[in-house]
Amino acid sequence: MIIDDHEISRAAIRELLRAEGMDVIADFKATPHALTAARALNPEMVIVDVTPMAGTGLSIARGLSGMPAPPVVILTSSADPAQFGAELNSYRFIAKADITATVITDLAKTREEAVPNRDTPAKHHQPRR
């Protein structure tokens, strides 16, 4: 599932991931409806766009993480991760420019591993295949 306010970004990420073999079950703007839809659809993973100026994406990420069976939450942004300060510490992060199915899969596999903090953002992971 993809949550991003920008329709073009959602479409680009959706098509990229689908072209690389991933299923994208839905995409939504960053609104309370997106969180409601996530609860109903129960996705394994949700990619959430965040911006330093608006807290909507981070609020949705917190809501997703608080679900009874939370999905893997991966934050993405066009902004420099340093602009978020400690807010990214408990989340997986990838810059929008670095999104590929392989990197998303690798980030999802880190569910039980320590999540990088803001000093070492997960901008790119080497494929494990």
Description:
The chain has four helices and five strands. The protein is of the alpha/beta class and 129 residues long. The protein has one domain (2-112): Response regulator (Rossmann fold). Helix 3 (56-65) links the parallel strand 3 and strand 4 (72-77). The longest helix is centred in the first third of the chain and has 13 residues, at 7-19. The radius of gyration is 13 Å and the shape is globular. The two termini are 23 Å apart. Mean pLDDT is 83; it is low at 112-129.
Topology:
Elements: E1 2-3, H1 7-19, E2 27-28, H2 32-41, E3 45-49, H3 56-65, E4 72-77, E5 92-95, H4 101-109
Parallel strand pairs: 1-2, 1-3, 3-4, 4-5
The first-level CATH class name: Alpha Beta
- The N- and C-terminal alpha carbons lie at a distance of 23 Å
Number of strands: 5
Number of domains: 1
User: Please, how many helices?
Assistant: 4
Shape category: globular
Unreliable spans: 112-129
CATH superfamily: Response regulator
Helix percentage: 25-40%
- The helix-strand sequence is EHEHEHEEH
The secondary-structure class comes to alpha/beta
Give me the CATH fold name: Rossmann fold
CATH architecture: 3-Layer(aba) Sandwich
**What's the main sheet like?**
5 strands, parallel
- Strand fraction equals 5-15%
Tell me, rounded to a whole number, the average pLDDT: 83
The radius of gyration is: 13 Å
Strand order of the largest sheet: 2-1-3-4-5
